[in-house]
Structure formats: structure tokens, C-alpha cells
UniProtKB/TrEMBL annotation:
Keyword Transit peptide: no
Protein name per the record: Gnk2-homologous domain-containing protein
InterPro entries xrefs: CRR_secretory_protein, GNK2, GNK2_sf
Record's keyword annotation contains NAD: no
Coiled coil segments of this chain: none
Residue ranges of every copy of the Gnk2-homologous domain listed in the record: 27-129, 135-240
Signal peptide, first to last residue: 1-25
Phylogenetic classification of the source organism: Eukaryota, Viridiplantae, Streptophyta, Embryophyta, Tracheophyta
Amino acid sequence: MSSSKSVPLTLFSFFFSVFLHAANAAGPLNHFCFNPENYTAKSPFGANLNTLFNRLSVQVPPSGFGFVSTGKNYNKVNGLALCRGDVLTTNCKTCVVDASKELRNLCPYNKGAIIWYDNCLLKYSDTYFFGQIDNQNKIYLWNGIKVENPEEFNPKVKELLSSLSYKASTTTKLYATGDLELGAQKKLYGLAQCTRDLSSDNCKKCLDGAISELPNCCAGERGGRIVGGSCNVRFELYPIVSSNA
């Protein structure tokens, strides 16, 4: 089992098994209100947070990623949003707007929070976190149905995702998808993506770290993913995105 630095204790209350076909629903996958400090209603911090959400809803959709800081000193807010690499601009905007609304409801007056959807993630904090790998905010999702041959299947998952880790870290979007032939007209599909505030080296480090944790949740599963604050990896026995380009 991973250390508390990689998998925070608060995470264990959020462990759950899902059929990932249902992850296409509009609702969030999960969220954390990770900062013990709060701000008050109508405070400068709250006003800056609203400004940050508005800026992200404009900045993110055209390219699928954006990060913003608003305010100064103790009232400064830092935030980013990332949409999955294949998500259309309009759907990206909808996801970012929905994420900001949900965080207001789920983490009222909290100075640091993160939320994940199938199409996007959104994170904000009163501390500066850009360019740093987030190892604290992380969730595991798995299919709930086991494969018949895990001894053969698990190495294939690692092989595919490791190749996508390298591919993603060397692209400008820090995003990659691909597939691997399993024989008998079966394919394994994978995805790897990082937030674009990370360097190429830190992206690969983040993805490789996530891949190394897959046995903790997803060994022998037909599908699974590790979704974090800086990167995510996913594998399935069906196409994950509209195109594997």
C-alpha cells in the first residue's frame, strides 16, 4: 500500500468501485476540500475566487487548459482547469463552469479545493502550486469486473500506459491515447494526461508514479484509472475517447 504522502488518509473514505461506463454522466467523479482554512462571505478572497472562476471559464476552453492567479498577498487565489484532450470546446466550457459551481456548493468558504469530472478537473488554492506535482489529491476508480487472465493482462496494462506516459510527456498538450492488440480481435485502450503547468520531466514522473500505484486498486480489472491533481492515467477494454489520434 502506498504511503500517506501518495495516498492521503482522507482518500480512504472515498474509495469506491464503479462501472466506468457510468462515468460519462454529467455529475462529478469526486472532490476534496483539502484546505483546513476558510474565508468569510463577501471577503476579498471570495471576490478573487469568483474572478478566478470566471477567467478560467474563458481561458481554458480554446486550448483545454489554463491557470490563473488573482488578488494579492493573503487574498491571492491560484487555480487551474484541465479538460480531457479530446473534449470539444463547448463541452470543455460547460464542464469548467459546472465544476466551479459545484465547488462553491461542496466546499463553501474553503481556501483550497479540487473536483474531477470525466471531461475536466478544476483546482484552486491560496498557496502557489503551479509546476509542482500534486501527490496528495488523488482518487482511484475501477471497473468492478475481473479479467480471466490477470497474469497476462496486468503486464499489458503497464506496457501500454508506460508507452503513453513517455508519449504524453513529449507532446505540447501533455496528452496521449493509444491501444494495444490483445489477440482474438481484442484491444486494450489507454490514456495519459498531465496539467500543462508541469514540465515534461515532471509530467512523466507524475504519470509513472500513477502507473506504479495501479496494483493498489486495479490489478486484474477490466478497466481502471488513477485521477490526480496533476495527472491521470486510464485503461479500458473499450475505446475511451472518440479518436486515438
